[in-house]
Amino acid sequence: MRNSILWLALPAGLMVVAMAGAQEKKAATKKLYCWNENGQRVCSDALPAEAVTRAREEINAASGLRTAEVDRALTEEERAQAEAAKLQAQLDEAAQETRRRTEQAMLLSYRSEEELRRVFNERIAIVDNNIRTARYNVVSLRDGLVTLLQTAGDRELAGQAVAAEATASIRSRHADLMRQRQLQTSFERQRAELDVEISDILLRYRQMKGPAAVDGTTAPGNQAMPNAAPPGSGSR
């Protein structure tokens, strides 16, 4: 009988151990959230909705060690600037790769300065088109933003509330305008750098080809090259 009682008591003991282990595991994984609010450090085991977008630290409640650090959420304007910076880096990388390929092609392929200028003119046309598009977008977005701001101002002067949708549209349009202005500045900078790059590469090409290229003539057996447009003569 005694053995039977011990046998029946065994699963209950295992259950207690399992429950204790689960509680210890839960305690070990429990988090504390700490953030600044009105200049004061606030910590809680639950993250309130108003603190979700704030910078915070996550701390293991059992060990007291910091397990994660979360940056605050970006504003729409900051997100637009980050996107523009990312796009700028991609454009710079693409421009660098294009320069490298152009120089390799120049050394290996082009038989005359005219052929080399033709490639440069294609690049000029692409950048000039980007500039025109960015300028058009800036003007369009600015005009639309002015209209939205005027409408909101008229409502406020009339003692009426500005709808949340209108406020969101103003912020979104402003972020788009900032992004397009940065793109326009980037394209215009690329255009100026392209003029310098073309001049440098043409100089190197003439040095490789010798006096004949400097004089505007071609190697024996080829026709003389007609006058080509100077570097950077593409439309703006």
Structure, explained:
The chain is an alpha+beta fold. Helix content is 66%, strand content 9%. It contains five helices and four strands, in the order αββββαααα. It has helices at residues 2-29, 76-108, 113-157, 164-209, 211-214, and strands spanning 31-37, 40-44, 56-60, 66-70. The chain has a four-stranded antiparallel sheet with strand order 2-1-3-4, with no helix packed on it. Helix 2 packs parallel to helix 4 (164-209) and helix 3 (113-157) packs antiparallel against helix 4 (164-209). The longest helix has 46 residues, at 164-209. It is flat.
Keywords:
alpha+beta; 4 strands
Question: What's this entry about, in short?
Answer:
The protein has five helices and four strands.
Silhouette: flat
Rg estimate, integer Å: 33 Å
Overall strand count: 4
Percent range for helical residues?
A: 55-70%
Which segments are poorly predicted (pLDDT under 50) over 5 or more consecutive residues? 4-8, 213-236
Distance between the termini: 102 Å
Q: Could you give a short account of the major beta sheet?
A: 4 strands, antiparallel
Oligomer: single chain
SS class: alpha+beta
